[in-house]
Specification:
Layout (H helix, E strand, L loop, with lengths): L1 E5 L3 H14 L5 E5 L2 H10 L4 E5 L8 H8 L6 E4 L9
Parallel strand pairs: 1-2, 1-3, 3-4
Length: about 90
């Protein structure tokens, strides 16, 4: 399984990577990008089975990030963010 972790915060990326490694049902290759541009390049050139996507990156913010990633990735995308979203308690 190849997981693309899109996270610009190094500490958050380490936590997410550790969680993926613990939860994987077999070997998982984790690719990391800290910008949306890098993530799109990876998703375009590699077979990715799952994307873990932070919505607020240096080069993209909020749901625009998800929309742009969905246009490229041909796999499930799970949004991970530390932002508070109104109505999501």
């Amino acid at each position: 399984m190849r997981v693309l972790l899109v996270e610009d915060n190094a500490s958050d990326a380490m936590v997410a990577q550790a969680a993926v490694e613990r939860a994987a049902f077999g070997p998982a290759e984790i690719l990391r990008a800290d910008t949306l541009a890098k993530a799109i390049a990876i998703a375009s050139s590699s077979e990715v089975h799952l994307v873990l996507l932070d919505l607020n990156l240096p080069d993209s913010h909020d749901l625009t990030t998800l929309e742009r990633m969905r246009a490229t990735a041909r796999c499930p995308i799970i949004v991970i963010t530390s932002e508070d979203w109104p109505g999501l308690d």
